[in-house]
Amino acid sequence: MLTRADIGVIGGSGFYSLLDDAEEVEVSTPYGPPSDTVTVGRIGSRAVAFIPRHGRDHRFPPHRIPYRANLWALRSLGVRQVLAPSAVGSLRAELGPGAIVVPDQLVDRTSGRVQTYYDMGGAVHVSFSDPYCPTGRAVAVEAARSGEWETLDGGTLVVIEGPRFSTRAESQWFQRNGWAIVGMTGFPEAVLARELALCYTSLSLVTDHDAGVEAGQGVTHDEVLEFFARNVTRMRTLVADAVQSLPHERTCSCGAALDGIKLPFELP
Q1: Which of 64, 182, 186, 188 is the least crowded, having the fewest Cβ atoms under 10 Å away?
Q2: Is 36 in the active site?
Q3: Considering only CA atoms, which of 238, 184, 200, 241 is closest in space to residue 75?
């Protein structure tokens, strides 16, 4: 039975069929249970652990996802590189549904989400100037372009609290700031990965234009889910290609994020 993995995928429940020789693994964490049972299996020669971000029955809204438990569970299984596919809205008229964005920057517009493991026992300050793994980003961009996706290499993801969508005025403000896409789940996922010295790469599928980009009634929940469902098979292929192209040995700076820092507890 496979119970260890070096690559983690956090995504929708449509990604279960991504893995071969899959086994469910129960993982307990100091932060409660993860969103659902972790599934460990193989993609080619790579051992991969998968967590459905919202739970397999989509019971967790974006602001209630147990982000700390999810990342801790992956690290405790040996994961050191994480791929995070998600649905996002576009803030640019020329960037339409069906495009893949591999963001290089992030803006946090959430409120009330616990965004650190180090809230007791002394301050731990990690560098977050570049939120995403440069190696993972390069791999994801290459995989998307090889799969003939329209691909944006770079751009800023602004993460809103949800579960509501943006007002038209908020969306237009995001556009004026030059941000590219808007989503609800990319934070605190990215910073928690950095606090565990994990590589973290976002693969963002544009499902719609945000409210301030086009006239009309704005995006709806059903429209987003329907578009993502229509593209989930293609997204699985993209993630599988990226998984198999990730390096076996990390040479990026992500693994050194905690070097020289005295931690208040031991990491798994």
Answers
A1: 64
A2: no
A3: 200
Which residues, other chains included, contact 184 with Cβ-Cβ below 8 Å and sequence gap of 6+? Answer: 62, 63, 159, 160, 161, 162, 163
User: How far apart (Å, rounded) are the C-alpha atoms in residues 243 and 138?
Assistant: 12
Q: Is there a contact between 60 and 163 (Cβ–Cβ < 8 Å)?
A: no
Integer Cα distance of 53 and 10 in angstroms: 6
Give the burial class of 67: count Cβ atoms within 10 A of its Cβ; 0-12 exposed, 13-18 middle, 19 or more buried.
Answer: buried
Active site (annotated) includes residue 108? no
pLDDT at 226: 79
Distance CA 188, CA 67 (A): 7
Measured between alpha carbons, how far is 181 from 209 in angstroms, rounded to an integer? 9
Q: 243 CB contacts (<8 Å, ≥6 apart)?
A: 7, 9, 43, 44, 46, 48, 83
- Domain CATH number, residue 94: 3.40.50.1580
Contact (CB, 8 A) for 203 and 115? no
Number of domains in the chain: 1
- Amino acid letter, residue 65: I
pLDDT one-digit tens code per residue, 180-232: 999 999 999 999 999 999 999 999 999 999 987 865 556 667 777 777 778 88
Q: What percent of the chain has pLDDT over 90?
A: 83
Catalytic pick among 36, 104, 108, 208: 208
Residue 209 domain flag: yes
| pLDDT single digits (tens) 64-120 | 999 999 999 999 999 999 999 999 999 999 999 999 999 999 999 999 999 999 998
Catalytic option among 36, 104, 108, 210: 210
Range of the domain at 100: 7-250
